[in-house]
Amino acid sequence: MSTSSDFTEIGIILILAVSVYIFFSLRKFIFFQIEHSMNEIDNKIAHFMEEISNLPVGEKNVQKINGENVTSGLVDEDDGTRLEIQNLVMDLAIKKKEEELKNRHYSILRKAAKDMIDSLVYIPPFRKMEENIPVPPIDSNQTWIDLVKNHIPSQKTDLADEWRKYISIVNRCSELKINVLREFENYLVRGTGLVRSENGTDSDKGDSFYVSEMLYSLLNGIYFNMQISIESPETPPESRKNKRVKAEDLFLNGKVFVHAPVNIINLVKERFQYLLVEDHVMPVESMKQLLNAIDSANEMVGGIKEVLNWFIFENTDMLTCNMIEEMKQ
Q1: How far is residue 20's CA from residue 27's CA, in Å, rounded to a whole number?
Q2: What is the pLDDT of residues 56-77, one digit of tens each?
């Protein structure tokens, strides 16, 4: 009996199969275009070489002298025609060499475009050791410079400018994540009397503390739709009545997040729980800024990838550039 997971796996396999088919079909089309161009040049060269070989070396010059046909010798071959055809053949040979260089350079640029795609990153989740995301600038690689400057049409986009904006927004996200972590923590526990605990193993925090490490999981649930499980085990009524239990636990993903009296636990839950179900409702200004920055960064990734994939799979018009001129040397 099939399950939903079976259908999901089949769907993924079908999508991968179609993607692979499209990939090789586009590559085959591009190589066909290049090969067709090279074959056309070869055919023209062969045609002109045949023209040269069929030119007459010379012919008899017959004149009428006193009413009689007199052969006075051979006419020189048509040097002008032969030279013209030879020049055409030479031009075609040069063009063929240029096409070969373009084809070789195109392979290098496709590899550069793929490297650029691999350098693009979506904003990662919150983590304890927050670091800047390393995105290499365009001018760190000469081939990248050539690709962006000489081979991406301006009608597509100003890719160099888009890449600079992308690096800027990525760095901005890294800064905002640090601000959000600090400001959200303050928002969550202000007025509660909760004491900060790094990992919940401290023995001197008493009956009212929160585990700061769990904030990463909570923020990842808000910003990156990561799975969040919230539990507040019920305290037996008789324990409450006898006042044997002064504090309770709020669990986040199976780990203690807050240990405090029930009214404090409920207050903390109220401050963050709605953030997990309502979109774009942020109680702290830096949280709103980060949300917009993440959306912008991810949108830029999609736009840049689209242009680079166009170059890899669809572009067949390889233009000359300084790097091709250098390859001729």
Answers
A1: 11
A2: 544 444 444 344 444 444 444 4
Show the 3-state SS of 87-124.
HHHHHHHHHHHHHHHHHHHHHHHHHHHHHHHHHCCCCC
Report the amino acid identity of residue 182: R
Q: What is the DSSP string of 206-230?
A: TT-EEETTHHHHHHHHHHH-----E
pLDDT in tens, 256-303: 999 999 999 999 999 999 898 876 679 999 999 999 999 999 999 999
Tokens for 242, please give them: 């006898």
Closest CA to 102 of 154, 23, 177, 41: 41
What phi and psi, each to the nearest 5 degrees, are found at residue 231? -135, 140
What 3-state class would DSSP assign to 35?
helix
| Residue position matching structure tokens 């090969």 | 35
Q: How far apart are CA 36 and CA 29, in angstroms?
A: 10
- Nearest Cα neighbor of 301 from 130, 140, 167, 137 is 167
Looking at the DSSP assignment, which residues form a beta bridge with residue 188?
none
Report the C-alpha gap between 138 and 51 in whole angstroms: 50
Q: Give, as one character, the DSSP assignment of residue 284.
A: S
Give the chain's radius of gyration (CA, Å): 37
How far is residue 282's CA from residue 275's CA, in Å, rounded to a whole number?
A: 7
